[in-house]
Fold each of these.
Amino acid sequence: MLHVEHRRMFRINGLIDDFVLSGDPSDYLEFASAVESAFQRSEPVTLQTASNFRIEIAHDTGKSELLTSLQNQDDHYPSMKDWEDRSMLRIWGNVTVLRQLNLFLKGIPERGEGYSYLSEYSEEHLYHPLSPEWRLHVHSPKEGGGTNA
């Protein structure tokens, strides 16, 4: 099961969300399978992680870029506590974008141990510039599910 680490990064344009996902090759294949399910049906697909975060993948015909965001279930924040308690990583894209993401995620285990970035998912399709960065760490199954990101 993927482990998600959320980091807040201070940049010139303010505080941004940044994520490190860590898992073995089979975890990334499971992630790819969830993406495939999302573009084959009209309902969002939720992937549980070993952390307090869930990943929700949704097919959205209006999104020609891959868009990701950290939100709460309702995407409504009446208080600072609601903002701090966000635990849903959402991914949206049209069928073409999600197919590219699916292929990218399936290829991650073949790269072996190391890091990739979600924004590398395609040379043809954009990763929305306001989306947080996701660093994808693949470790060998013998390393275990630690958080050595």
Amino acid sequence: MTVLTIIGILAVLALIFVIIEYVNKYSMKHYRYEFFTWANLAVTAVGYVFIFFGHNWYVEALSKSGDILNGQILMGIGVVVVLSMLVNHIRRTSILFGTFFGVFQLILYVPASVVSFLAVIMLFAWAAETKPVYNIN
């Protein structure tokens, strides 16, 4: 059963990759705009991080009867960043294509944002372990 699960996950990932490549080719051909890029992932991941930590801050302040405005502001900034990415897609393409594949992209970027955030944290942890090198002549 484990092998079938792994094969199924790999098949779904391959299908998603094929869809992403097709959407990028189509949007580049018809709109001269590449839909799935690393920059879009970075901007969307920042928006999702703001929403996540803003929600955590809001819930913590709500449980302690503290100031909930900080969490609300962070969530608002995150929502504005994510929606601005969707509006940018709609503006650069058509309303139907931009809305449908923009929402598809935002859904796909949720797990990609988590993986990206963890990779950045590991990169910072690795850089923190770097020791200075002294040259004594």
Amino acid sequence: MKKLISIGVALALLTMVVVPGAVAAQDPVPPETYAKAPFSIVAEGLRLAGDLLDMEEAKMGFIGYDVGQFMEPIAAFTEGPLGWSVNMLAWGVDIVAQAAGPIIDNFAPDYGWLIDVLDDVVCKILMPWDAIVCP
């Protein structure tokens, strides 16, 4: 019994040393932007709901009505094309800022700060978690 306990303690100590070292040794590549994170969270929630529905259907005997199968395409759309709407929004705001810049400079120079605000919005949408120096 003492041998079993000492082996368990040795494995626990080894795990306490090796696992943090292995995790720290990983060199994670940060994503380009975190702006799509909410879409990924919603997609995973939809996948979870689909799995739960599948389990509940099997438990209740509704095997013929596979409702959970419809959640995967919705989750894939949420994560993919709907997630890219963030980039499209930034692109649209940037186009408006570039088009409105000369107009505001010529007709309302006192409102030139609006272009700076739009540029900052684009900058913050695309890279919200980085230390960005916007032009």
Amino acid sequence: MIIVKQPEFENDDYLFRIDTTKLPKAEEALPFLRKIDPILGEYYWSKRQAFLTKNTDPNIFSRFVKDKPSLRNLSDLDMLDSTIYTVACERENNFSYQDILINVKKHLFQKPTTRRCVLRFIDSYNKYYVSETERSLDVTCLSLIHYLAEGPKLIFRASDIKNELLVDILTINEFFIAPIYNIKLKNYQTSIYSSTSQGTSDWDNFVKLLHSSYNIGKIT
């Protein structure tokens, strides 16, 4: 992990790079997270399953509300069309999730010098604006993924370091990064930037957990 800029205060930005190929696969990540915190493990698995099945029902996360500030408005939502990124990417790009993966790989490896392979998740400004007064709107924290031949860049609007960041990295890697790069590249780095961060006092613990996740094969 290379930390270019760590957050110094609440809502500060951050930038770091990780060797994404060292991240655990789902079947390894689940027992690792459960060992740290059973609730964290179950939350990760629920989110992963929602990505996998494109389940936008808010009730799948209802048992985590008291532990996850990002879910504070869950009872007001009819669907999680922005939180579930496999759904958000389809809505914002007019492609099915599987077609997006196929086209990104084709684009990226036919034109390896391209800087134009960008996948958008971000909502329209109008939706963000209205969500300030209407709690019934689900808005995404991930803005975009910029795919480059040597590795991707993740850009977040907001990032809850304490409650969400590790789960976000694991799920985004599984569904949007590994399927693109693992076949072609043995080693690649992912840059992760957030323009605001929350739970910044937990930064050191996040870094420790991320490093630990690289070695979970050694955990018994």
